[in-house]
Structure prediction request, 268 residues.
Amino acid sequence: MTDREIIEQAWKNRELLKERACINAINDTIALLNRGEIRVCEKQQDDWVVNDWIKKAILLYFPICSMKKTNAGDLEFADKIATKKDYMEWGVRVVPPATARFGAFIAPGVILMPSYVNIGAYIDSGTMVDTWATVGSCAQIGKNVHLAGGVGIGGVLEPVGAKPVVIEDHCFIGSRCIVVEGARICEGAVLGANTVITASTKIIDVSGDTPKEYKAYVPANSVVIPGSITKHFPAGDYNVNCALIIGKRKESTDKKTSLNEALRQVNI
Prediction:
């Protein structure tokens, strides 16, 4: 029986968590996640497909782990999940006190400034996770991405079929941006500081003659800034947050362009 089959059975019958074969299957799956040999969500054609059995393995990992005390100098921690190790061997730069949980994959060439990466996340090569940025459980971050200071990338474990946040290759996510609830930011997009993208955020392309609206999806190479839109409520009309696509990142722009340069190209 494969590890996947054992995990699927244990998902339906938690009594199996007491059996050594089940514990081994879960531990082996989390170890594969940690090494990047499997991942929670993968791109197929132009869509991202969830491997829900891996999410089940993560959720089953918690009950088979025990609380343990760890120390980093004078700092004391108590958790069920160990932190990642062996960064030097992987070629990952980690600036204290950055923390990543075991079961998150961080590729060679990634830089973690003081930040946090949760279990199940996948961060590809050349990406910088800047100061106080957070990468939630199962979030998928592409190559050469810059998550600027204070960015919040949401995580999702349940329901197991729910898609995680996906930030594709070469994106720039500006300071204090929030991207949650399974939103997908496509390759090369630039989000200006304080942009909020949720499953219900109206994302409006205002760069053409007529507006075009998206939900939880920012097209490739879009340059996005925070905006507002008027919405009618029983008590009156009020402005609510939205995101405005104001132009496209030019092909001539270096993939590691600064946010300011990208915004200048569209006269912001």
Observations:
- Residues 88-249 form a domain with the UDP N-Acetylglucosamine Acyltransferase; domain 1 fold (CATH 2.160.10.10).
- The CA atoms of residues 258 and 264 lie 10 Å apart.
